């Protein structure tokens, strides 16, 4: 029997937690800023067709019907007390307005999807995650259909058990890259069944709906978008990290205290991450570049600041699988650093071809990135150069500027 969950989008809580948190911060600090976002397909061999476009457009239209129900809001406030009363009231009246805020089309010849979002930052910030989930589902229902759910439950149990046996604490971070909602539901169902007698555990999921369904904690940090937007609006790359961290702390007072490090490269980040900020924040998140080099860098930075590294946590979230997470944990143990892992694509989009079980079914590499804030270009300088995003001229300008200052 079909359920409401089979007809995504269906709930405002089918969203990653960090987006609600960033929406509150944007409302507090930049309520009138107008932004634009763009869809980026990092793998041009993954081409879309008219069927995928039609399914995506239908899903986008349905977003206008989503409202936050009373019980959903009560749940959100009960598990996330750092979300303010005023924000919960805002969310109660929030409505997606896709007809005015989203443009979606297809270049038939190239199979390239053109998806753009524009409007007030506080209004449009909730689109990214559900849109990426819709894009992925549309692709795998209409383009690459050579797959099925066989073995997914057993596979996630095997992965999760491997992680907890190795003492890894990890969360499921796969909403944006999931094959479809059913896949993510299978994943969380399996993770909720893991044995509890090992040193490691599944600490929760980024997806608020599934956290509620399976009685686990909704978890999240902050996205690059926050730092990118602030740097553009305030006109500074060299101090963009510190401004973003200060404003975030003023909103959440130490809650959600994991600092994202690679918006403009980790060198610029650590130059901003002084004793005051490093003391206030619980730890840092690695999302690009070598995790092993990063561990040494974090350890040495805390030591230089006179802070005991063993009191801080490093969250890893860059293209992880269980084997990689376990190896990183061993490395962290050598430095007495606490670590957590956010695993996304490997949990919610790890399939084999139905026609040849030994052949992997390619996972997506789709993103939606902030392009403009009040007309000012927003960029990201990842530690992985292939993940640089934004206007090319502005990327070059920022690279030159930060290099001249010795920050890149």
Coarse morphology: globular
Return the structural class. alpha/beta
Q: CATH superfamily of the largest domain, please?
A: nicotinate phosphoribosyltransferase
Backbone CA Rg: 21 Å
Largest sheet: 6 strands, parallel
Structurally, the number of domains stands at 2
The level 1 CATH classification of the largest domain is Alpha Beta
CATH topology of the largest domain: nicotinate phosphoribosyltransferase
* Strand percentage: 15-25%
The strand order across the widest sheet is: 5-4-9-8-7-6
Q: Which whole number gives the mean pLDDT?
A: 96
Poorly predicted regions: none
Beta strands, count: 13
Q: How far apart are the termini?
A: 56 Å
Please identify, by name, the CATH architecture of the largest domain. Answer: Alpha-Beta Barrel
Counted by DSSP, the helix tally is: 18
- The helix content, as a percent range, equals 40-55%
Characterize the quaternary organization of these chains.
single chain
Summarize the topology.
Layout: H1 17-29, E1 34-41, H2 50-62, H3 70-79, H4 85-93, H5 98-101, E2 102-107, E3 112-120, H6 121-124, H7 128-142, H8 152-165, E4 169-172, H9 181-191, E5 201-205, H10 208-214, H11 224-234, H12 240-252, E6 258-260, H13 266-272, H14 275-280, E7 283-286, H15 291-304, E8 313-316, H16 322-334, E9 338-343, H17 345-348, E10 351-352, E11 360-361, E12 366-373, E13 376-377, H18 392-404
Parallel strand pairs: 4-5, 4-9, 6-7, 7-8, 8-9
Antiparallel strand pairs: 1-3, 1-12, 2-3, 10-11, 12-13
Helix pairs in contact: 1-12, 2-7, 3-4, 8-9, 8-16, 11-12
